[in-house]
Specification:
The complex is a heterodimer of chains A (about 600) and B (about 280). Chain A is an all-alpha fold and about 600 residues long. Chain A is about 80% helix and about 0% strand. Chain A has 2 domains: about 290 residues, Orthogonal Bundle (MetI-like fold), CATH 1.10.3720; about 210 residues, Orthogonal Bundle (MetI-like fold). Classes of the chains: A mainly alpha (about 600), B alpha/beta (about 280). The interface between A and B is large, with 48 and 78 residues.
Chain lengths: ~600, ~280
């Protein structure tokens, strides 16, 4: 034993086996593939820069500063007169009603289509394994695929564009907005529902199917109970999205806050604009709070299997009380929905031939215009749209990165218990920087792109540059928050090791935090780019350039068949982008 | 003296008021000494470690590193001090998405300028890369230098942390349970590496261990902690069986280990005592 130990200690260096061929060599930095890729990206970026009509100098012209200053001075004081507050109040109520009606319609559209497009039920899997391949089964499988494609179409076309069509079909007003929300969010909801139904544990289905249960029974007894928590959670999340969207839909005449903001901007009543923006931010925050509260409540009444449930089983009284409150909540829900439908004019208008008007509009939109000259005209707006999305996302990345670092609490307030002295002044300064960055991110994020467009138009004039800036500012806020959260959640142990070996904060950031956070950061960014492409197709509605402008013009002129062509292009664009985004994400995370 | 601790206390705030993780510790460590910290889990070993590498601040008491009071150091001084201390953590604490080579290079971070840091992200300096390869070579991981840290096995990860410390070239090595979760054969290899590193490089080594056998075998001095206090601080040759049984009294899972060949080991440690 002694001998062995001794020899081990003395032979410590002998463990270094001579190795052949493990010489470290710098990876070749320059090769043909890389040069080509770099060139292609550069050319693409230059094209995007040109297409988006980026003019950095426009930001520094004396007139710009003056216009911005006049705008900012105009914002203060916000208009808080009783008369105007009454306008704001009714706008808030209308927007909220629009959001609730939209969500209800989205459920009504999304649920049946979602059930129909669930592959386990109609296309493949355990339920269909034993059945004969008859014509009936094949046709229903194709119907199911058709429903899925329809959901894709509803989702791909931005809500504002749907809004524009419904304004034409059923006239100005909240009804058009509600239908637009219902259709576009119905597409989103249906797809999510189908995915949730598809992901349930299939063993339960198999067991039930084996006992001879019908498809409806399998759905109600095996799929729905498993899927319910996710379905409810996602639907409530959708309510938040709808509230944001409802405000924006006002811009194209659906009424509510967006309409008032647009109006006040055009009347140069900036004090009113500030009041309205505050109201909008408040409304969105209230919806967030409401839906989070509901989700927590529902979580407390979670279905079998969850800890909360067992807890309530033990204390029957508590559970009964929870049930009673749920029933009360449900009652309030129904009243709110009914009131919303009444306020959006759904009930009065449905009687006056709503459906026939929509059918009439659809009839006018087909067949799509495929004239060569017209198609050539669309080339520039198409490139413009892509350019706006790319440059806007890049601006967003820059703003987000700059603001995310000071907004990351783990970087700013590192190691309160750590050795070493830090003066109270330094602590105070750090806290100040942190809260300023957080505030800036919240402000950028809570103002919708379309409102940013209006403000940017003041600074740099109508056109794609204003749209690019608007996308950049809004996504800067969104990305900055996501970046900061990602950086905060990086596992801390490896960082401790780096700090313990004497690394500086910047070195820890580059060698410890960045390598761990990179895949998530890239994935969020690509996802944002996909969303920005959608947004850049509608910026034109308020003067931000791109395909939206072409759609708006053709709708105004009544050339509905041309509009159909443009919508088809938007659809193709969005589908391509989704595909590209998927590829980028899966490749990047693999690295 | 490389370390001098005087009446060191560390308490954490908890729901039941302040809880003492360390209570009035006083001891010195000489350069090139090899010290094992023994004690049941929860005795405060890991907390002591964080104090020793200055990532944690003592609640009271005086901690001196190489004659300098740690509590009086600026952030810059602290970084300079940490550069001289190589820590091997129990859970390896490697950056999972970086390659073995990059993880090894991390050992050098403390001595790079900011410019070098940025540059080395893109492409490591040749001299640094060569040193890192040599470090990987001596732990037998040269052929894995491109592999991501999270693709390595537990034993390989442990060896990689040793390569990182080799790269850092510190005066003091702190190893927190370096042999935990290793099988006997691997334990032998890692122990060999670690002791070779300390002895051949004339470095101080402080290691926490839960395995009494290993402590007796490889370390000339043992400091035993229990309930946040020092129970004994003796040369291994003077450690008696009673010392060890009382240290682990009530910890049934570790008691059998105490009955190992104490006599034999104390002879061994006499031959290997630090100068």
């Amino acid at each position: 034993m002694i001998l062995k130990s001794k020899s081990i200690v003395n032979s410590a260096n002998n463990i270094a086996r001579p190795s052949a061929g493990h010489e470290w060599r710098a990876a070749p930095r320059v090769n043909l593939a890389r040069v080509t890729a770099a060139l292609a990206v550069t050319v693409a970026l230059v094209l995007c820069w040109r297409a988006a009509e980026i003019r950095p100098t426009a930001l520094f012209e004396p007139g710009t500063a003056a216009a911005l200053w006049a705008f900012i001075r105009g914002l203060f004081p916000p208009d808080l007169s009783l008369e105007f507050l009454r306008v704001v109040g009714s706008a808030i109520i209308r927007t909220a009603a629009l959001a609730i009606t939209g969500t209800t319609l989205a459920i009504a559209i999304g649920l049946p289509l979602g059930v129909m497009s669930t592959p386990t039920l109609w296309q493949r899997g355990v339920l269909l394994a034993g059945e004969p391949l008859g014509a009936a089964r094949l046709s229903i499988a194709w119907l199911s695929r058709g429903c899925r494609a329809l959901l894709g179409l509803l989702r791909a076309i931005p809500d504002l564009m749907w809004g524009l069509f419904f304004v034409v079909a059923v006239g100005l007003g909240p009804l058009a907005g509600a239908l637009a929300l219902g259709v576009s969010y119905g597409g989103m909801l249906g797809r999510v529902y189908a995915d949730v139904f598809e992901d349930v544990d299939s063993r339960a289905l198999e067991a039930l199917h084996a006992t001879g249960a019908t498809r409806l029974q399998v759905f109600l007894r095996a799929i729905w109970p498993q899927a319910k928590p996710s379905i409810v959670a996602y639907t409530l999340y959708l309510l938040e999205c709808c509230a944001r969207s409802a405000a924006v839909l006002g811009f194209i005449g659906a009424g509510g806050i967006g309409y008032e903001i647009n109006l006040s901007m055009r009347l140069f009543e900036y004090g009113q604009v500030l009041t309205l923006i505050m109201a909008l931010v408040g409304l969105v925050a209230a919806t967030d709070f409401f839906s989070r509260y509901l989700r927590r409540r529902l979580h407390a009444n979670a279905p079998a299997g969850s800890l909360a449930h067992e807890h309530f089983e033990d204390e029957g009284g508590l559970r009964r009380r929870a049930d009673g409150r749920t029933r009360a909540t449900l009652g309030i829900f129904i009243v709110m929905i009914a009131a919303s439908f009444y306020l959006t004019g759904f009930i009065s208008q449905t009687r006056t031939g709503l459906l026939s008007r929509i059918i009439h509009f659809v009839g006018q939109s087909f067949p799509p215009e495929l004239d060569g000259g017209f198609l050539r005209q669309l080339g520039l707006p198409l490139v413009q749209t892509i350019g706006i999305s790319v440059m806007g996302t890049l601006i967003g990345i820059a703003i987000g990165a700059v603001l995310a670092l000071p907004a990351t609490s783990s970087l700013i307030f590192a190691g309160e218990d750590e050795a070493g002295n830090r003066s109270p002044v330094s602590r105070g300064a750090r806290a100040l920087v942190y809260y300023f960055a957080r505030l800036a991110l919240n402000l950028l994020r809570s103002i919708p792109e379309l409102v940013w467009v209006l403000m940017c138009i003041l600074a740099v004039g109508l056109g794609p540059f204003a749209g690019t800036l608007a996308i950049g500012l809004h996504s800067g806020g969104v990305l900055g928050k996501l970046y900061a959260e990602t950086l905060e959640e990086v596992p801390a142990r490896p960082l401790e090791a780096l700090r313990a070996s004497g690394a500086r904060p910047l070195q820890i950031l580059l060698w410890g935090i960045w390598p761990q956070a990179r895949p998530t950061l890239i994935s969020y960014t690509v996802l944002r780019w996909e969303m920005n492409l959608r947004v850049s197709t509608i910026l034109g509605l308020v003067g931000g350039g791109g395909l939206g402008q072409a759609i708006y013009n053709n709708v105004q002129l009544g050339f509905y068949s041309r509009t159909t062509t443009i919508v088809a292009i938007v659809y193709a664009l969005v589908i391509t982008m989704d595909w590209l985004g998927d590829r980028l994400r899966s490749r990047r995370t693999a690295i | 003296m490389i370390y001098s601790l005087e009446n060191i206390t560390k308490s954490y705030q908890s729901r039941n008021g302040a809880e003492r993780a360390l209570d009035g510790l006083t001891f010195n460590v000489q350069p090139v000494e090899r010290v094992a910290l023994l004690g049941p889990s929860g005795a405060g070993k890991t907390t002591l470690f964080r104090l020793l590498n200055a990532t944690l601040r003592p609640t009271s008491g005086m901690l001196q590193f190489d004659g300098n009071d740690v509590s009086a150091m600026s952030s810059r001084d602290l970084r300079q001090m940490r550069r001289r201390i190589g820590t091997i953590y129990q859970q390896h604490q490697l950056v999972p998405s970086l390659s073995a080579l990059d993880n090894t290079l991390c050992g050098k971070l403390g001595s790079w300028s900011l410019l070098e840091t940025v540059r080395n992200v893109a492409l490591p300096k040749k001299s640094d890369a060569k040193r890192a390869m040599a470090a990987l070579e001596s732990v037998g991981l040269a052929d894995k230098h491109r592999a991501r840290a999270d693709e390595l096995s537990g034993g390989q990860q442990q060896r990689l942390t040793i390569a990182r410390v080799l790269m850092q070239d510190p005066d003091v090595i702190l190893a927190d349970e370096p042999f935990a979760s290793l099988d006997p054969a691997l334990t032998e290899t890692i122990a060999t590496l670690l002791l070779g590193l300390a002895q051949n490089g004339k470095r101080t080594l402080v290691a926490t261990l839960h395995d009494v056998d290993l402590a007796l075998r490889y370390f000339p001095r043992i400091i035993a902690l229990r309930n946040a206090r020092i129970v004994f601080d003796k040369l291994t040759s003077e450690v008696s069986r009673e010392d060890l049984t009382s240290l682990y009294a009530g910890d049934s899972d570790l008691a059998p280990l105490v009955d190992s060949e104490i006599k034999e080991h104390s002879e061994f440690s006499k031959q290997h005592r630090a100068p």
